[in-house]
Design brief:
The structure holds 2 protein chains of 2 kinds. Chain A is α+β, with helices and mostly antiparallel strands. Chain A is 58% helix and 14% strand. In chain A, a hairpin with a 5-residue loop joins strand 2 and strand 3. The radius of gyration of chain A is 16 Å and the shape is globular. In chain B, strand 24 and strand 25 form a beta hairpin. In chain B, helix 6 runs antiparallel to helix 14. The chains are: A alpha+beta, B alpha+beta. Chains A and B meet through helix 3 and strand 3 of A and helix 1, helix 2 and helix 4 of B.
Amino acid sequence: MTRRRVDLLQGTLDVLILRTLASGPNHGHAIAKHIQQTSEDLLQVETGSLYPALHRLEAQGWIAASWELSDKGKRARYYRLTARGRKQLAAEQSKWEAFSRAMRLILNPADQEGQ
Amino acid sequence: MNSFFRKLSWLARRRIREDQLAAELQFHLEEEAEERVAAGMPAQDACTAARRELGNLGLMREDTRAMWSWTLLEQLLQDLRYGARTILRNPAFTILAALSLALGIGANTAIYSFMDALLMRSLPVADPGSLVVLKWHVAGNKSVHDSVVHDVSGQIYDDPRTGATSTIFPYPAFELLRKSSDVLSVVFAYRPARKLNVMVLGQAEVTGGEHVSGDYFRGLGLAPAAGRLIMGDDDRAGAPAVVALSYGFAQRRFGDAASAVGQTVLINNTPFTTVGVAPPGFFGVDPSKAPDLYLPLHADLLLNPERSPGPVDRYLDEHYYWTEMMGRLRPGITIAQARTALASKFNAWVAATATNDRERKNLPEFLLQDGAAGLDNLRRSYSEPLYILLAMVGLILAIACANIANLLLARATSRRREMAVRLSMGAGRWRMIRQLLTESLLLALLGGGAGILLAVWGIKFLTNVLATRSESFGLYPELNLHVLAAALLLTVVTGLLVGLAPALQATRVDPMPVLKESRAGGLHSGERRGFSFGRLLVVSQMAICLLLLVGAGLFVRTLSNLHSLDVGFERENILLFKLNARQAGHRNPEILSFYRNLEERLAAIPGVRGATMANSPLIGAGAWGWPVLPLGKERPERAPGGHGSGFARTATRVLGVGPGFFSTMRVPLVAGREFDERDRMGAPPVAIVNEAWAKVNLEGANPVGRRVTSFGLRTKPQQMEIIGLARNARYDDLTGDFPAIVYMPFEQNLGVPVDEMTFFLHTAGNPLGYASAVREIVHQADARVPVEGLNTQVAQIEREMVPETLFARLCTAFAMLALAIACVGLYGTTSYTVARRTGEIGIRMALGAQRGVVVWMVLREVFVLAAVGLAISVPTALAVSKFVESFLFGVKPNDPESLMLAVGILVSAALLAGYLPARRASRIDPTIALRYE
């Protein structure tokens, strides 16, 4: 079954990166792979937007970076979530949940009635 | 905040971050490749695929970098560096462009500073915004002469909107309106004191002053620089004689303000005590005058006791208009409310002063105007010329901008490859436009900086020129914050305007064809579009040129018409100066012999061919006038009488002259004789009339021997015998029909008071060389009498023509400049055309075309451009020239000769500019041209 790729909405990349890093530090390539796999291939991150986003988040202070050795032994730039980043993630996550609930309510009113 | 500091620290470690980013991306690439290899792709393909997946590395790096710092700032710095490099690389172009911009921006800044000083400067007093000026007007078809205004001392001027308007009121009106404390918190009055003889520490000079009411300084909210200022108790009949000095005067005569307090000054031979000094920078309420002394209103009883009307009349007469007033609005009251309240009071009062029905129909109506900038005399005389000058310098700037835009365009089209490469690498079009605009802005800033320096010089130059027009020039233009901000705005707008079209043009490039083309390429669509924009610029330059040429033609002809005017008397080699012996203390009858003796001694100076005097200068100082009619005619009801300017042609002007006036001033006598020793005080009264008077009153019959009645000011009508008929000569204004003049011997004192006399010396050689001899003789005769207004007759006449002279000179200079710039532009465009069509020309010549045909081919294009330019500008010139009509003399605004001359000059210049490239085209060797293709 071929699944249509869903386009990434504006501004969603940030929260996806933060959530990915919540489960542990990782480098850019792995983050992109993780997002792709976890979303069951629905979301694919363009490399061209990934690194600017990572550096922007770093500038904001929500993630921090350092050079570590990867599991294959190569040097890579690893990003991890900071305390502020965790707070930001929680805030973004609740915003998203509220938003998606609202969308669901409007788009599927029958469901609600059925409940 | 944290992100701010983070970015700041990253700025410092830029290089390291660049390397790290490269390493990071390299790692990503390797991971992608490995994944593909693990999935079974051969290694080589895996690398390529990974690389392709990554996409535009350069753009990605750029975007990432953008996260590191403030993009805009970085990009701006980048653009500035690049722009500076480009500018330095083409020094010739940069200097040319900067110079032309400097000229345009500098000229505009200079004129703007004048306008700022004229229109936007407020009085240097407390809260000028709440000041109001009280006026009245007689609207439209009503006439002031038929109204309650029986006698005036002051000006009634013609305003296009309100008709005959004036600021002078009768003193009882002042006392009435003073009590309007419901709308005005204070009302104060003032009146200029025309030339006063002021003697300080033994030195006499003639200077101007202002009579002020007690509330003047309090109303304006001024604090003295020393001592105290005129207060309420000083302004009453019988108060001690006190005076307040202006700061400049106190410094000049006493050294500093503090030492002036308490000193006695002799004003018109009357001692006054100095009670204080006004603050520095204060010049009264009229920017066109700067009085040196401030006297109480009632002090004129001390200064001019013999002046009529007498003391009682002056302050009680409801029909004698002489006091000017200003007030301050109460907080919360608007001008409209104050106007309504005051108008009802004044209009009711003035209606009660009407003595007959005709006057009741022509009542003056009250007006109230904003007074933040003081009286508007200066504004009225200078605003129109300044607007015209502003238009002229605006056109110059436009031409300079068009030129630079054209040059930038040409340069942009030659950078097409560079643009194409950058576009294909992912640079945004907007980013590149920004960079090009930064370049042109930098150029504009260079030009603007040089322009400010130019403006400083320009302001000095213009001030000198305009100041010769009046004795006290009240405009003090300076490069204040206002003006500099305007200059900066103009510079920025110019830079953006000049660079926008070339930037848009240059980046409207489709990268592929441009990249594919060879270096020596032919024409491309983008280029073609750019070229027609260049032609548009050339056409507009030529249109502007024509406007300036037409203007120059009109003004130059006006000036030459003015110069060749027949004034009716000798103007060369005449020295003028004024003396006022009465102010120094002389009285009747001794004053007459004083003047007579002086005249004899002056005539005795070696080199002086003749000396005479009159009670008024002949040009530019107004005239005396009252009815002088053949015996038997009654005094007409509404005939003007007094001293003023611009009497009607048919009204009689009167001039009191000394013996020998006509021979010294070379005014021919058509019949009869001159005044001589017979016509002294006590002898039978005589008069000489001129041809115009004879035409108006006697239908041109010979007046010699007839008797006339002179209805002089405030004297009984006096009978006189006409003893001579003089040729027409000018008196007061220079232009228009010759006025009717009656000359009388000043000694017979028939209605013209003998106080200030103007002396005319006919000299052999330069009149100013006799100035020191004159001063010496006058000083010996009486040291209390200063020599004032020393000048030559020619210079006095020139003063009347200052705006016309200025316009003629400036417009000609600008027209020549514009023509030069337009020709250079045309030359450049035509050369470019020739270069572009080299191949075509080569083919034509190879096929047998003659040289002449080729020249014509090129020139045809020049003609087309010129024709389009003329088609735009000729109707514009015809439409616009009516705005300068008031400054023209002897030339109609749509004068066909000037227009044709301008067209001819423009076309010939265009031909000349185009001829050289055309000749080059005809010399093209076909073989070389074809090989070039």
